[in-house]
Amino acid sequence: xxxxxxxxxxxxxxxxxxxxxxxxxxxxxxxxxxxxxxxxxxxxxxxxxxxxxxxxxxxxxxxxxxxxxxxxxxxxxxxxxxxxxxxxxxxxxxxxxxxxxxxxxxxx
Amino acid sequence: xxxxxxxxxxxxxxxxxxxxxxxxxxxxxxxxxxxxxxxxxxxxxxxxxxxxxxxxxxxxxxxxxxxxxxxxxxxxxxxxxxxxxxxxxxxxxxxxxxxxxxxxxxxxxxxxxxxxxxxxx
Lengths: 108, 121
Prior knowledge:
The structure holds 2 protein chains of 2 kinds.
Chain A: E1 4-7, E2 10-13, E3 19-29, E4 34-39, E5 46-50, E6 54-55, E7 63-76, E8 86-91, E9 98-99, E10 103-107
Parallel strand pairs in A: 2-10
Antiparallel strand pairs in A: 1-3, 3-7, 4-5, 4-8, 5-6, 8-9, 8-10
Chain B: E1 3-7, E2 11-12, E3 18-25, E4 34-40, E5 47-53, E6 58-60, E7 68-73, E8 78-83, E9 92-99, E10 108-111, E11 115-119
Parallel strand pairs in B: 2-11
Antiparallel strand pairs in B: 1-3, 3-8, 4-5, 4-9, 5-6, 7-8, 9-10, 9-11
């Protein structure tokens, strides 16, 4: 099983700042199956990034994904008020699909 | 517009079977894509349960494989989850989702609103 470890657990930032979230896999994985999701309290997860770097439909270009091998990054270039949420990475290329434990981006 | 809606009992007794259905509107499940189930215990992270193609091909989380069955009914345009011998550890919000492509390894692109299932006597 591929274990995904996200860091930091919580990121305290102000609107307008840049957010950098990390997702590390327990072994080298295919970028094709690495995804990122946003979840706000009481809401459904929303796909942001698939294939490590492709934005899903309707996702603003301030969200970007990068990485390969074991290290992947989600970057939010300038935080908007609606971006404060929990972010999960997910890998579908192994058995089972696995999710990271999440990074909470909170208002500083 | 594609929409997914989970339905089923909100309370299940321990050792019994949990059954949920995901009704899909705005898209025919027989047109392609994999369809999946994911759950989230209160205050915790996400766990993939399994995925199904309209033809009936399934992929399960090995940790749940012995208790899970997924099925698809193209005539009703819905797919279903059954989880047997439930315990309190199965208490969670259960989501159904459409995957991003016809590859079961792909991301979960569209999600239902989720349904809370509590296992308690």
